[in-house]
Amino acid sequence: MNSQMPLYSLHERVWHWLQAAGMLSLILTGMAIHYPDRFGILGSMTNAVRWHSWIGFALILNGFLGIFYHVTAEKYHHFLPRMDDFTGAAIRQARFYFYGIFKGEQHPFEDDPRRKLNPLQKITYLLLLNVLLPFQIVTGLLMWGADHWPVTFTRVGGLWVLGPAHTLGSYLFLAFLIGHVYLSTTGPTAGSLLLAMITGCYDQEKE
Amino acid sequence: MPRLRKGPSTRQTNPFQAELLVAITVLLSAVTFGQNAGGTTPRKTQAKTLKLAHPEILLKDEAGQNVLKTGKPISTRQSCGGDCHDYEFITNSFHFQQGKNEMDRALLASHGAPPFNTSPGMFGKFSIIPNRQLTASDITDPSDADMSQPEWLTKCGGCHTGAGISEFDLRGHRFLTPEAKPTGALDPSYTIRDRDSGRVIPWDWQRSGIAEADCFLCHIPKATRGERKKEMAAGNFRWANNATLLDTGIVVRRGDGAFTYNSAAFNSDGTVKAAVLDISDPALENCAQCHGFTARNTTTIQPIQHADIMRGTEKSGWIYNGAKISDTESPNIVGKEKMDFSWDVHAAAGLVCIDCHFSVNNPGRMIQEDAKKNLRYKPAEIDLAEYLRRPDHNFARGDIPPETVNLTQHDTMRACGDCHEAEKSHAFLPYKSTHFRSLACQTCHIPAVHFWAYRSDDWGFVMDTGGSRISYRGIEGSIVDPESEIGGYLPAYITTIDKKNNQQIRPTNLITGVYWFDKRKGRPVFTWQVQNAFFAGKAAEGEFPYRPEILKAFADKDGIIDLPQAVYDSPEKIALVKDLLKRYSGVGDPELRIEVVPWAMTHGIAGKQQAIRDCVACHGKKSILGRPVDLNSSLPAGVPVVYRGKNLDVVNFKTKEPSFDNRVLLNSFYIVGYSRAAWIEWLGWICVAAAVLFSLVHGALRLLGGRL
Fold this sequence. Notes:
The complex is a heterodimer. Chain A is mainly alpha-helical. Helix content of chain A is 67%, strand content 3%. Chain A has a single domain (4-203), classed as Fumarate Reductase Cytochrome B subunit, CATH 1.20.950. A two-stranded antiparallel ribbon of chain A has the order 1-2. Chain B is α+β, with helices and mostly antiparallel strands. Chain B is globular and about 120 Å long. Classes of the chains: A mainly alpha, B alpha+beta. Chain A binds chain B through residues 33-38, 40, 44-46, 49-50, 97, 101-102, 104, 146-147, 150, 158-160, 163-165, 167-168, 170-172, 174-176, 178-179, 181-182, 185, 190, and chain B through 428-434, 437, 614-616, 619-622, 669-670, 672-673, 675, 677, 680-681, 683-685, 687-688, 690-692, 694-695, 698-699, 701-702, 705, 707-708.
């Protein structure tokens, strides 16, 4: 039976896609900065630097809006793993990805408006949103502020520390993005999760 | 000294000051008139019409008598000094002393100077060009005698303008006075090494006379350094300043070489006609005589004058000229038709040398700020009359390698940012402060040198002329042939410390020297010692015959050493010459060394159209900042490399020709897009590759299992 389950609110979808566009843009402009002679997509490195800075600030703003929304709408609990999510549940989810999915087993954690993320997603986002994203924001802001706060900039090691650190963070984000896009195909159909993030409704036809 | 502005009635005014007052009044009137009449008068026009009229003066001899009557050499101490200018004050400056007044080993050590240098200036400092050095005053061994004070003056006195270095011995006694006596047979102030016998023999100061400060060389438009140089080279120091005036018509050289005075150049009261002497601020042409090719606007460039290559041009290829490169008629600049811009934007704008390299106490030009007191403007504490009496000839200067003279007074000139609103004119540039802090302005504004310059001077293997092997960069062919193709060259980038203690990247020309060092003596091996090791005497026609040992090791079957063979391509050849240096020259522990000397580029500034604006030029994978710069194809491998006084291996032998490797220098800079932390790149790409691989393998397995 074909049923449409509302999963993502408009706020969540807009926030998600803004975040996705921002991160993708940051990775692209970042590549244009890191490989200026091989990745001149914006005409010049100057443009890439400027766009990278503006998009970075936009993403920070979007991040704060996201925090505001999830706190005021009391949806932050989606991102909070329980103890079990680190142990048994995580193992069940991993088993599904590495074994069950090939056998056609049921997803161990059904998508549900009350619990939108599986245990591995919760752990990943916990690290992503609380470690990697702040790390990128701080290192990025310090680099952006080299002209504004040169003393602080120098005190933390200058570009020789911040440059490689921010670069490593970017590679990790890129790796996450690739995995995230791929795993979005692991729903009931290859496109169902993606469609859910567009329409907000999860198609349960094959369930 | 009474102050001119403070009025007057009771003080005594000497004639000079009265005339000065008139001159200043005329000058100020002219300026005021010019402003009222024409608004903003173009600078070039002002330069032509406004000129401080110097009073007519007497030319006096050493006894203070008018030379027109006595026929004796001009004494600038008497003519310019005396009641008017403070001769002692003026000549106690680096232009006259060249380090003589800084012969303080503790001071030198505190600035990192090598211990074998006795001063920070050319009067005491070893230079790979010409592999010679002023002999230290305290030597006891004849083998430590290289270039004595008199010989230094014959070689270098054409440019280095007398006074301190040619009036006083190394202990400060004025030559030809009762106190001035040699302390021993090797006293370098009173001896010279005889070229033929090789012995150290006395110098006859009575015969040579002394050379006082040559004020004319810089302050007379028609000064001729060539004639001065001839007299200095001949050891005729006494008449050198007269020779400088030969082109003015005041002085005439007779057939027998003696100098007389032309009475037509003098007024009836014995003073020289002002129009003939024409005492002036130093013009471009005056400075150009020694410092490098400089002209307001010329299409013919001749950087070799009086058999000398002008210093700035030979060392870093700068041409300070307002004309467009495309208009150059001679020499042959390759691709000039595309160079529709001036050799130097400052020259094109009409700036002259003293606009930047001013006398530091000139009230009209001096920097009137006092950082220590947080003052941006401090009303001049010196008035014009006081300045004219005691103009400081420690001219405003920067702090660039390899110049070290006047150790304690570097960075006295205005920096680029003191004249230019760089923040406003670089709107296109992100991270302006970081860029301005990390890069010297010249880094972008001297993107290329369109002339030739020295590349190497190799004294490791001396030629049969007795001299070194010199090579140039930027030219195909001989530097004296105007048809030689001058393609120019690209700078090498090094790091230096600016006056705010920031490390900066700046462009340079690299001159690579190869020379022998005596480790036992702790100083370079002198040229005469190297010649003794290589040659068995000197042939009548001026060529030096190589010793049989040298011919056996280096020559071809015909017994001739061609240039490609005159290289140290094996440790055995180095060992052989070491042995010869020990045997024939008494060098205790010889060591072959390479020294890479960066010559900072400061002139030949390009305007915004030609300056580097493309970020990729520096930030790309093939950044110009790290490009290999060829040094000298005949460099010996495996010998110590000296860079700015320290052992630092900046030579890369893995390239086609030995090249400059500045990676160690640039290590303090993370150049976004160019610099890499290798492990970060590896780790990052492994993570990305793992994500891709996981997705591909997982997806493929799902596809194969029909689960996608």
